[in-house]
Automatic annotation (TrEMBL):
<dbReference type="InterPro" id="IPR006016">
    <property type="entry name" value="UspA"/>
</dbReference>
<feature type="domain" description="UspA">
    <location>
        <begin position="1"/>
        <end position="136"/>
    </location>
</feature>
<dbReference type="Pfam" id="PF00582">
    <property type="entry name" value="Usp"/>
</dbReference>
<dbReference type="InterPro" id="IPR006015">
    <property type="entry name" value="Universal_stress_UspA"/>
</dbReference>
<comment type="similarity">
    <text>Belongs to the universal stress protein A family.</text>
</comment>
<protein>
    <submittedName>
        <fullName>Universal stress protein UspA</fullName>
    </submittedName>
</protein>
<feature type="domain" description="UspA">
    <location>
        <begin position="158"/>
        <end position="288"/>
    </location>
</feature>
<dbReference type="InterPro" id="IPR014729">
    <property type="entry name" value="Rossmann-like_a/b/a_fold"/>
</dbReference>
Length: 290
C-alpha cells in the first residue's frame, strides 16, 4: 500500500502553511502527498449566491492553487489533488483512514481554523482513528519547522503509550532529531493509592523515582528499536499541559496522545491535547491510542 500524507485546504494562509508542512513531511517519509478540498453543493434560495457550476469551479480553482503552490516548492514530490464531495468532517475522517497522517491548518492561539471553522477541527481530531497534525501559521521570530527536538508526552503504562511513542520515535528518526520524552506528575491525595501502588512507590524510593522508572520502562523498547535516536528523559512535577508546553517551547514537533473512546456526550480530545493544540508554537500531532 502506498504511503500517503493528506492535507485539507481551503485557500487560507493557514491551510497553505499546513500544505507546506505536509509536503515536507511527505518528502521525509518518501510518501505521496494528497491534497483535498471538501465541498458539497447546498442550493440556497438567496440572491447573489453562486450556482452549483460556479461553486464547483471555485472549489476546483482553490484546489489547483494549493497544488501549484506545493509542486512549485517541491518539484520532486508525488502529489495528487481532489475535490471531495462531502461535508468537511465526514470527508476528512474518511481521508484519515486511508492516510498515514492527516494534516490540518490552525491559527495557533485560539480556535482551530484550517479549512474548518468553529468546532469542526476538533471534531476531526477527536474522532480520527489515525494521527492528525495541526499546523499553525508561524509568527515572525519562531523557530523554523526543521529545528529542535521531537517532544512527546508519556503517561500511563507502556502499552497505553505505545502508539504515541512509536509515532514520535519514527518522526525523530526520519528527521535525524532527538526525542524529548516528558512525563508530568503531581502529588496525589493519600487515599488515591492502594497497598499495591504504595509498595511499588516504596520500592522505587519515592514518587519522583517511581515516575522516572515508569518513563524509562515505557521508553526501553523504543530505544532498542531506534538506537540512533538520542533520547532525553524529562520528568517534572506540574500539570501535564503546562509541563509539556514548556518542554516544547523550542520543539519542531509536539506529539500527544488521545484516548480513542467516546465520552458520554460526544467526543473529547483530553485536556493535555487541548492545551497543546491551542498554545503550542510548533506543529502538534495528536495520536489516538487505546
Amino acid at each position: 500500500m502506498t504511503r500517503a500524507i493528506t492535507v485539507g485546504v481551503d485557500g487560507s494562509q493557514e491551510s497553505l502553511a499546513a500544505a507546506d508542512w505536509a509536503a515536507r513531511e511527505a518528502g521525509i517519509r518518501k510518501a505521496t502527498l494528497r491534497i483535498v478540498h471538501a465541498w458539497l453543493w447546498h442550493p440556497l434560495d438567496v440572491p447573489l449566491v453562486q450556482d452549483e457550476e460556479a461553486q464547483a469551479k471555485s472549489a476546483d480553482a482553490l484546489l489547483r492553487q494549493a497544488e501549484t503552490y506545493v509542486t512549485g516548492r517541491y518539484p520532486d514530490l508525488t502529489v495528487t489533488a481532489e475535490v471531495v464531495h462531502d461535508t468537511a468532517v465526514a470527508a476528512l475522517l474518511r481521508e484519515a483512514e486511508r492516510s498515514d497522517v492527516l494534516v490540518l491548518g490552525s491559527r495557533g492561539h485560539g480556535a482551530l481554523l484550517g479549512f474548518l471553522l468553529g468546532s469542526y477541527g476538533q471534531q476531526v481530531i477527536a474522532s480520527a482513528t489515525r494521527p492528525v497534525v495541526s499546523v499553525r501559521l508561524r509568527d515572525e521570530g519562531t523557530l523554523p519547522a526543521e529545528g529542535g527536538e521531537v517532544v512527546v508526552g508519556q503517561q500511563g503504562t507502556p502499552e497505553d503509550c505505545a502508539a504515541v511513542l512509536g509515532f514520535a520515535f519514527e518522526a525523530a528518526a526520519a528527521r535525524g532529531a532527538a526525542v524529548r520524552a516528558v512525563r508530568a506528575w503531581s502529588l496525589p491525595p493519600v487515599y488515591s493509592y492502594g497497598a499495591g501502588s504504595m509498595r511499588l512507590i516504596d520500592e522505587a524510593g519515592g514518587l519522583e523515582p517511581f515516575e522516572k522508572k515508569a518513563l524509562a520502562q515505557a521508553l526501553a523498547p523504543w530505544r532498542a528499536r531506534y538506537p540512533d535516536v538520542p533520547v532525553v528523559e524529562h520528568v517534572e512535577i506540574g500539570s501535564g499541559g503546562q509541563v509539556l508546553l514548556s518542554a516544547a517551547s523550542h520543539a519542531q514537533l509536539l506529539v500527544v496522545g488521545r484516548r480513542a473512546r467516546h465520552a458520554p456526550v460526544g467526543t473529547r480530545i483530553g485536556s493535555v491535547a487541548h492545551a497543546a493544540l491551542h498554545h503550542a508554537r510548533c506543529p502538534v500531532a495528536v495520536v489516538p491510542h487505546a
